[in-house]
Amino acid sequence: MDTPRGSRMFNVNVDFDLGRSGEKAARFLGTGRYLAIQTGIVIVWIFLNVVAVNLRWDPYPFILLNLAFSTQAAYAAPLILLAQNRQDDRDRVSLEEDRSRAQQTKADTEFLARELASLRIAVGEVATRDYLRRELDEIKALLEQATGQPTATPKKARKKAAARVQDDSGTPEVPDLDT
Where is this region: Disordered (predicted)? Predict the structure, then answer.
């Protein structure tokens, strides 16, 4: 806002990226369409210079046609090299990103492996349901030996508990003994 705009009439701003234009040209030079167009031009050129007597601008050795091909080759080769260099730069950047991503993935994998190992160690120290059942069965067997009377099985114990505990509707409320 503080700076005057100046004259728009002579303010020419051309953003010409030679690399991008070179890549487009190199891509076009490698297509079948280009080969078909070039072949058509050469056939018409030769036909007009051999058959049409009044339109001969380049007689038989076709020196002007050779000059055109040499000029085209002189510009096509550097454009192709420019496109290859830009592609190499993009590939280098992509490779660096892939390396950093691979390093991060490796670090994450190693971290998860360490966490998994620590969880396995921690789970190994926790009492499991089977361990508790086995211990309770041993205690039950010891009680039966000491008293000489069989103890109630879990199903019988649930039925006795359900008979003792009833709600207002008269239906038995079964306590959850598994938890």
Answer: 144-179
**Any domain includes 71:** yes
Asked whether the beta carbons of 59 and 49 are under 8 A apart, the reply is yes
How many residues can be counted in the chain? 179
What does the pLDDT read at residue 138?
92
Task: Report if residue 80 sits inside a domain.
Answer: yes
DSSP state of 165: -
**Percentage of the chain exceeding pLDDT 90:** 31
- For 68, half-sphere exposure in the C-beta direction (CA atoms, 13 angstrom radius) is 9
Torsion of CA 22, 23, 27, 28, to 10 degrees: -30
User: Quick check: is 130 in a domain?
Assistant: no
Domain that holds residue 78: 18-99
11 vs 14, 41, 62, 138, CA distance in Å? 10, 40, 45, 97
Q: Are the C-beta atoms of 120 and 57 separated by less than 8 Å?
A: no
Q: What is the mean pLDDT of residues 82-98?
A: 93
The residue-averaged pLDDT of 10-29 equals 73
Strand residues in 98-168 grouped as ranges (E): none
Report the domain count for the chain.
1
